[in-house]
Queue: 2 jobs
Job 1
Amino acid sequence: MTADGGPELVQLLTPEGERVHHPDYDVDLTPDELRALYRDLVLVRRIDAEATALQRQGELGLWAQLLGQEAAQVGSGRALRTDDFAFPTYREHGVAWVRDVDPLQLLGLFRGVTNGGWDPHDHNFALYTIVIGDQCLHAVGYAMGIQRDGTDRAVITYFGDGATSQGDVNESFVFASVYNAPVVFFCQNNQWAISEPLERQTRIPLYKRAAGFGFPGVRVDGNDVLAVLAVTRAALQNAREGNGPTLIEAFTYRMGAHTTSDDPTRYRVAADLEAWKLKDPIERVKVYLARNGLADHDFFDAVEAESEVLAVGLREGCRSMPNPAPESLFDHVYAEAHPLIESEREEFVRYHASFAGGEH
Amino acid sequence: MAVTTMAKALTAGLRKALENDDKVLLMGEDIGKLGGVFRVTDGLQKDFGEARVIDSPLAESGIMGTAVGLAMAGYRPVVEIQFDGFVYPAFDQIVSQIAKHRARSAGRTPMPITIRLPFGGGIGAVEHHSESPEAYFAHTAGLRVISPSNPVDAFVMVQQAIASDDPVVFLEPKRRYWDKADVDDTVDITRAQSPFTARVVRPGTTATLACYGPMVRTCLEAALAAESDGLDLEVIDLRSVSPLDIPTVAASVRKTGRLVVVHEASVFLGVGSELAARITEECFHSLEAPVLRVGGYHTPYPPSRLEEEYLPDLDRVLDAVDRSLAY
């Protein structure tokens, strides 16, 4: 397997910021839309950096970094219609951003004040899923549902290169294929499953697996926001038109650690990181905008200033985030009253009330 | 509906649920043209179409995981796992996703999923076709676990399970599929007894037998046999193992002073263990003897030529009653 994604890689914007053409995919964006994508990329990277810092300061228990994967997430997320539904892993902070989820709600999960954080139906964005690959089946089930509703909505599900080894992901390919479900499988191949390189998951390029399941697979430059947008739009459109699933392999690189608990210096070499730095997803957009007169210093400064405001808000919001009320641990476990929960809740309240007035 | 089997009562219950709510979907292996390996879904695909009675690929986790997505899309999936021993590939989706989703989303994404699971032994089946996995599921917060013991309850309880906004593991005692009873198919399920409560199916004074699913008939037969020895046994059909209806069992034990819990599952850390603990806590001064448990042994389910030795029967139940009375 080639380290650069090989000739099959769909690319519309080179790492050097050159706009190139592809016979099958294109986007026609206004300057405003291009600048908006740049803004998304910068702000998403800033959220990630702030969250990483907050973890280092002890404000978060953990953070799963997306550094390097901004274009894959923003490009695919911006390809969605508002009424489409997205199923994330636990690293889709960029998709959450474009689905208008308050970044503070993402932090809540990693701070340990909630196991969820947002209303999936408000954003058409499911809760983060930590068990690897489970969400791909949820996405296919949701797609089977909207297929029965008779709408032209579509579903996207995110997963990584490691997840492609999971049974549930392969089962989701089977179900989507045989039912022709309107779903896009969006695999961010960031080359690493914690410490294990891609070679531990596959002997063939991941996008080629789709052929065995009977639907198209395409490999896109995951660091090229324009190409990701174009390829994802096409796949979603295909799904809407009743042509079933597509597997998109976004070829990218996890520039950070797996999570803040990980130490990538134990298993990968700095030279790889240096090579991928040259393919940065944000820098190429900046070069393209500047070189073509689509944005000036004032614009870049304004985005930088906005990211500063966002960061301050995140820091303050995170530190002042209240712990949940202790009794809330019994909430929402069941829809209808469950006598065991009720009796345990009463016991819990009674026990804590027994300390009333004292120090504890 | 007149006299019918439990299997046909379940079919009738599923049919009602499909008729009453167009969001109800059935999904499972071989449930379409074949009507399921026990024919419980017989004729339903023909009448409700392939979009609502769905033959699934042969992948249990796939069935369970797509049910999660269907539920999120507003549907009310009823999934059939062909046999008890085949539910484990779907265990992750049940325990990590279905059970937790409501709590994680603060109630915003309920999981009104019914997991139909033929369970238990006694039919001379090969390996992996006779297991009783209820304790795994009852141990998981967020799930409800119920089991009908007779055709009348089967008809009502399957509809109640589907109507519940909580995920319900619905255990069908496969050795009782062919038991018959007069089933009233005009029952209003909203007025029927809650499926999450127990029922005294035979009042008595000497000792209490608590059981569910396939063991209810066994215990009723034991109680009948004990009459000739002058024993008046009370039999409680628990019907639900999560939640467990402790008040009904406690009221009985306060009267009889003795409790024997009977199930096919191995007794170690089983439903009987929980009942023993709770009843000891709540009825300590009423007990004349320790709570005894009759159930499977801590072995893999045996080859079918040995299952009569493994499964509780009338004699083992009465032996436990004798031991209780001897205290």
Job 2
Amino acid sequence: MGNVLSIIVQRLALGVLTLLIVSVVIFVAVNMLPGDFAELILGQGATPEAVKIIRQDLGLDQSLVTRYFGWLGGMITGDLGTSFAQLNFQTNMGGGGGVTVADQIAPRFANTMFLAMVTAAIAVPVAVTLGILAALYRNTIFDRAANIFTLSSISSPEFFMAYVLILFLAVLNPILPSLSNIYAGMDFSDRLLKSLLPALTLTLVVTAHMMRMTRAAIISLLASPYIEMARLKGMSPIRVIVKHALPNALAPIINVIALNLAYLITGVVVVEVVFVYPGIGQLFVDSVKIRDIPVVQACCLIFAAAYILLNLTADIMSILSNPRLRHPK
Amino acid sequence: MNTLITLVICLAVLAGFAWTFRRLGQYGTRNAPEYRDMPFGVAFGYVLGVVVLVWLGLAYVASLGSDPAVANKFFFLGMAINAFVVFSIAAWLFRVAGQRVGTQSTRKLFRSMPLTASFGILMILIYGILAIFAAWIAPYGQDEILQGVAANIIAGGDVALGGDPEFPLGTDQIGRDIMSRLIFGAQNTVGIAFATTLLAFFLGGSLGFLAATVGGWTDQILSRGVDVLMAIPSLIFALLLMTIASVWSSRLGIPLTVFMVLIIAVIDSTRVFRLARAVGQNIVVMDYIEAAKLRGEGMWYLVFREILPNATAPLLAEFGLRFCFVFLTIAALSFLGVGIQPPLADWGTMVRDSAAFINYAQFAPKAALTPLLAAGAIALLTVAVNFVVDWMLHKSSGLKE
């Protein structure tokens, strides 16, 4: 067991290292902006004195390396700075103690996590069940139809799926609300109902991939001798698959589930914009449009961290479920 | 809550039907093995299939009815069924034509082709023709604001509903012909995506082969760099870089679209690099590479004359998938408002601009056509490419199951 633990610690260290390098990449990318933040904040009315004051306020007169470590330290302690929009508001209107980026992100982050969890709760059981069914009835008309359907839903853009769902479930048959106006203090069922349509859209997108992988993982095992044995002793096909094939196919299935949850992070951006869902993806896109660099930077790092974490989980899960991977060649 | 209860009751009724169906089959055929050994799930599947088909048929009839409240409700379903039937027939005809016309080998290819693949090839051909000849096919220019024509003319060309037969798909919010913009969209969106994919393949492919041939430190540095770039989700990274590029583009006077092509090509070339390196490493150990090295051939010759021709097959399948990815990324960026910039006509932007019309679908279904057509155009092309790639992979892997 010590071996497993050391491998996990090793992977975690590697993940942290990757995250550090990613933060450097993001920081350097942002610093490739022409001019600097001060001019961007002030926009058209930038007088040299004002620029100088703001540069001092933000610490822009220090060297790149010092600033990087300052930013990194802030990120780790949860101080993500103040957004340009807020700063602009303060300089023009006076008053202090504005909303920091951390204050902006925290509730939205919780909303996005809620959406992702609802999606996972629907998508994972549906995908695994459908995958098992497709493997069970392989090469029948059901399998073909499922193949065409999943291939189409993998390859259509998220917003197409979103609008088709809005059209049929919100406009033509008003079952679900098409706008997800979530606010603090909503009760759970109301919240669930409001975020059901975006969750369904994301489900459609990720289910297809997970289902195909489940099907492929199970089918690749069906030629094994122990499956033959189970069949020959007269087990029903569904029992053969669920009791004998599925446990052995679990490693690739878990892996693909974790990878798809990582994919959700990207998908969530477009879907949140379509449904005006107050999550971190929408904040990110809005900040990109108004070039609000501190928010963009912070969101980008959070997305990257979540992505790396989920990939790491997939890695560790597959090592745990497959003993052969514990012994490097 | 009510919908949920209805759903459960419907499923229970279906389960009852399935049981009856199996029972009747067993009685009617005197326990023929097919019915005797039929699992309940299969019986349920048959019943469900029949019910769905009947419902689709009824919905199609309803969509043709004269009562607008009902007809509007099923308008889109009817259209989807029409499109499905027309596309199926077109794909079938195309396959039949392919089996008759052409050289021996193409005819053989078409004979073993599934309908989905022939549909995909047909669609790709149509899109290609539209993209290349857009300027001749489209009735108006892409950024031509037509004088004396109202804005927001509804699609369908029915004057009583506010349409105009001269503009079968209507006009947009500032009076441009939507059909022309859709056709030019093929040129812009597909053309830019194609160029981006080519660039990504050139970058990723040559660097990947280089890493495979040279090995050592070059390989380590390139691979670790790619690992880092791949650790950031691609759409997020693209959005971050587009923020920075938007400032640069206004400062340098270079169109943002150029930056977008470069950014997406670089981000996507990491995936190509991985594949090219893996494929290249298998080729580099071959004897003929060793022979070429002993002959004293240069690196350029090794990569482009020895490795590349032997790596075309896997790279070609990857090209299709990468194209889909790039195409979808560009569409998503445009949809979010930071991709292809106006006045270039582009499907993602068109969806965003006209998305609000979907809310009128209940009363004026044709008003909701524009965003759906633009989004559907994106979906149709990616689906078509995926069908073809799926078929190619299936064929080359030789999998029968």
